[in-house]
Structures
1.
Amino acid sequence: MNGPYEIFDNRFRDLVLLNVSLRKLSGGHLWTEGPVWFPAHQCLLFSDIPNQKIYRWMCDGTVNVFRDHSSFANGNTRDAQGRLISCQHGTRSVTRTEHDGTITVLADQFEGKPLNSPNDVVVKSDGSVWFTDPTYGILSDYEGYKSTPEQRHHNVFRLDTVTGELASVAHDFAQPNGLAFSRDEKRLYVAESGQSHDDTVPSVIRVYDVVGGNRLENGRDFAAIEPGLPDGFRVDCHDNVWTSAADGVHCLDANGVLLGKILVPETVSNLTFGGPRDNELLITATTSVYAIHVNTAAARGPKT
Ligand code: MG
């Protein structure tokens, strides 16, 4: 098979394409993250965290600055109304960019104290915003402002955007990172990337049952990731998990079985599905952003 693949299970052959190559969309950055595709605008937004910018890649190949002084924005997603939701290390907050360009702070404290540094975010089909809050953005002045954590835990949070209530739904992590729901939203996957600073922490994606639509129970390991760490990941329309790793993008089935890899020449931080025909994997990897056509697409959440 051509292409930059490692195949461990024949099911992977049906998910990728022959005779396609990994294309570099943008380069020269410091640490890219937070890729999110906007169908209405036919563009990809991604963060360069240390450079404090959110960039925009357009289908004609141009790349420009979407937001300067991004407050060390990290993970991004879009809500059902097509609005940008961003995790910002510098303000230790999760924000929403409204259609008129104004920025609304969705969450910046819990139990009266500042959040650590929101890292990655996903919106459930009921409109609730789920995000992780590790300390990466306050450990140094490189990806935020060095500060002493004030939260007791490194939480996974659920924000009710109707009532404004912020609830900790899990905190059994060294450093929670990327997160994504299964197609039916009955499971939430969360990356444990704490091995970055502690060799004793397993490099794993964990999975929880979503109970009552708003609580997590029965947390357990879903899959070990190696080499490297799981950072951001996405679930496709077949319920496969496509995750970042040191050597590229790993594709796991819904039981955590490794089906194959797309090899990428730089350490991958995150990825998303998108492109004009919604059949490309858009990959942030260290100094660059890459794209490759695939034979799958993003999961669509259940209708509410
Ligand atoms: Mg992350």
2.
Amino acid sequence: MDRATWEAVDQYFDSVLSLSDPIFESALAASRAAGLPEIQVAPNQGRLLQMLARMLGARRILEIGTLGGYSAIWLGRALPQGDAGVKMISLEYHPKHATVARANLERAGLTKVVEVRVGPALESLAAIAKEGAGPFDLVFIDADKENNPNYFDWSMKLTRPGSLIVVDNVVRRGAVADAASNDPEIRGTRALFNRVAAEPRVSATAIQTVGVKGYDGLALIRVVS
Ligand code: SAH
Ligand code: DHB
Ligand code: MG
């Protein structure tokens, strides 16, 4: 089974399930035109994130790693629009990515619910904790993988029992299974799994995926107590 087959199946699902629409397409086109890396979640993964948010009845969502706002549109649309207290905060290091994301969120009609904050996520997370902006019902971790253990620690501080923490890119073509890896991203993700294993307040799983994003995977971490 090769990548072309995985891509054909993703394209079949996108088409038969009508996963995309003109807003998503224009967000992707604007991100591409601005030269952003094309590393956003796949449409079927975006729909999964959106379904998880809806199943949780999420009213507050935190995203670490905005890029052009593609996953933020999926998640922002899961929120009950116009309700007081409903909010998504998405953290982005690069001002240029944030500018593209804000324009994409504007076209999606989501500027009232989704706030993009620029800066190193670790600094933004400290500020969010200080402001008492949580607890968040869903956290999507999808930024610099070296910091995954730190993002998990912050997520535990900023969530409540019943919240869900989703971590993207936890497989990386299987490299995560290599205990001897010197890749800082793999070491970061393995450190996150070690934290999860040592954390009695969570129940977690991880799933391998193939598709337009190649061979990768997602971790799902539910805060239980
Ligand atoms: N969630 C997005 C993809 C995010 S790609 C989507 O699926 O649509 C990862 C993003 O994390 C990039 O835009 C990158 O600039 C950002 N990033 C990397 N290091 C960061 C840091 N330390 N703080 C905040 N954002 C960071
Ligand atoms: C990369 C980052 C991502 O978040 C992703 O989903 C795919 C690739 C990357 O940095 O290569
Ligand atoms: Mg990712």
